[in-house]
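Form P-L/3: holo structure prediction, ligand flavin mononucleotide.
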Amino acid sequence: MSFPFNTDYPTIESLRERARKRMPGFAFDYLDGGCNENINIRRNTEEIREIQLVPRYLENYKQSNLGTEIFGIKYSAPFGIAPVGLQGLMWPNAPEILAKAAHKHNIPFILSTVTTTSIERASELTEGKAWFQLYNPAEDWLREDIIKRAGAAGCPVLVILCDVPTFGYRPKEIRNGLAMPPILNIRNIFQVMGKPRWALQTLYHGTPNFATLKPYMKGNMSIKQLGKFMNETFSGRLNAERIKPIRDQWKGKLVLKGVASEEDAEEAIRLGFDGIIVSNHGGRQLDAGESSVRPLQRIVKYKDKITVMMDSGIRSGPDIARVMGSGADFCFMGRSFMYGVGALGSKGGDHTISMLKMQLQQVMEQVCCEQISDLPKHMLRAKNQI
Ligand SMILES: Cc1cc2nc3c(=O)[nH]c(=O)nc-3n(C[C@H](O)[C@H](O)[C@H](O)COP(=O)(O)O)c2cc1C
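OUTPUT (holo model):
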């Protein structure tokens, strides 16, 4: 049997362990942590894994196909790369590595407003297929300008966030004093000295910066100045009034990310969104909240009105099958892909996608499921499911 990836790292957990060894501590903490006591980040994966699938060995079976269509676009797998900020700080060139890998495998890559490559570069690397996640700018001119740039770059889907109405209370980030570009205090310098590959790659690719926002920023900013800039520039709390001008201006598909209740899903339908991503931001915002798969199971009933996607906690092919079995139209992962890049650098994106595809294919073959959309037929209606 041949495997299309480095068999030393056959799981996301093995990639995570290697990433932990290769990334400076402050960068790994930023990627790996949840918020407060880290309860919800654990709950996300644990509750996905309570879902069980039923195999049907004696059914007629030809072959499984991972292909999935959303918004009229055919993708080769039912999963994509979620938007993650500061990627180039965690591993040099990370967003470019992931955008290229997503393009090669024909899966969606979502570019964050606050990552280290620009809308224009992501579009170039994906031939106009990258989606763009917009933090909602406080000022009209800035919002209009960024949306115009996303349109000109050919982005098919604009994603806006509703789950960052305030900052996430993340103790390790508070202690590490994370800054952009990175500020090297004594502790950080020691961490970087112990990670020669990260340091060399950073020297080679240059200090990371907020490439999309650069035209609107003044020079280098400390975490404090950056916080002020973000607070002044973006208004995290969304409402109907703030969404309307975005919906009016954006002619492509519009997605609301961070939905965690039926009420917000219904409001998204009323406001004219084409899709929602049920998400709790990977457990980085509300430690006291539900895991993401729970509201997903209640929200899939709106699927005839809106495309329902999910992220948070997915770490394997079986996890993808469990989420798709719960009725999602599509799903995304954030950390899994970044662990891949942290572990394997430029090969990390390709490795992680190939591995997840193979794991998912194996589950499909095992349960005798030919199409992703048939996975819900294999769900065991367990006690804990709604
Ligand atoms: C380090 C990190 C940074 C993130 N930055 C953003 C961001 O800039 N914009 C955004 O919409 N979501 C952001 N997210 C949330 C992800 O898009 C996604 O919802 C989350 O990672 C999914 O959970 P998972 O990591 O368990 O797959 C971030 C997540 C992480 C881990």
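COMMENT: The longest strand covers residues 253-259.
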